[in-house]
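tool_call: predict_structure(chain=1)
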Amino acid sequence: MTHPLTGTARPLEPLKNTGQAGLESAFDKLVADWRPERFVVGLPLAGDGSETPMSRRVRSFAAWLAQRFAPIDVQLHDERMSSEAAASQFAERRRQGRARRRDAARLDSMAAALILDSWMRDHGVA
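tool_result:
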């Protein structure tokens, strides 16, 4: 989610994989609580920018979001290197004593925030 005052992304807790009905319910609650203008979905491409089996699944997920929550806009954004950047940031926070080993479970959330920050920079939002 984007902080309304700073325009920067902040990680939320990851959604638990509880099956399709649980996912739908979790997204319904997020949309009701946050009232987003758009979804930015990280697109996992291969290093050369080509499609992968995972990127095809993500495109299917983005289509589901677009259908379920129309007219909310859904944008795909290249997420290459976001996981590595999140791991690097986490390692630096650990060295500084600002993160604990148990915080590593939030790496996906940190990567999602980096993807959103990157999308905002690329679109002149941040």
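agent: The two ends are 13 Å apart (CA to CA). Proceeding to next step.
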